[in-house]
Amino acid sequence: MVQVLLVEDSRLSREAIEARLARSGRYRVWAAMENAANAEIACMGGRVELVLMDVCTADDESGLKAAARIKKHSPDIRVVIMTSMPEHSFRQKALAAGCEGFWYKEHGDADLLEVCDRVMAGETVYPAEGPSVRVGWADSRDFTARELEILRELALGRRYEAIAGDLGISPNTVKYHVKNLLQKTGYETAMQLIADVVEKRLVLPKY
What whole-number distance in Å separates Cα of residue 178 and Cα of residue 182? Predict the structure, then answer.
């Protein structure tokens, strides 16, 4: 039976996932916690084989950062990232951290047990795309990768010059992309646009 570490800050979700795993007869929740900060320590005992890790955990601890630490020190432990947030960068960060799976709790048709089974069989299991979010007049899938990068930078309070330096483009190119975003969404100011994408969890800079 696969020994699982479950990191989920919602008690109801934690209990539901634990019950689902138990009913399968293939997985046992060895430990469950709501804060990702302690996950790496929990993996050091040698019992954990699979980690189911929420992105946004208690006390604003990032499950993605915890997962990266686990994969660095315990690469044989399989990690599946879970989230209900549509934030566009989560899948890329999970891949960069070396996580084997990614599961949207409230979007798509994937079943958690299927994802776990495939990951434990040696597959890397990720959804082809994230959920769509309505931003003004636009669908979030209408945004280019560069536009999403600039939205993230703007949400961090960065100025155009600093964004340009980080992304290796000119300030005028940043302004061009912001203008396109405003035209797509119908917003009059970048501040209105950023407020909307943060409220709808398309951009969550601290994770």
Answer: 6
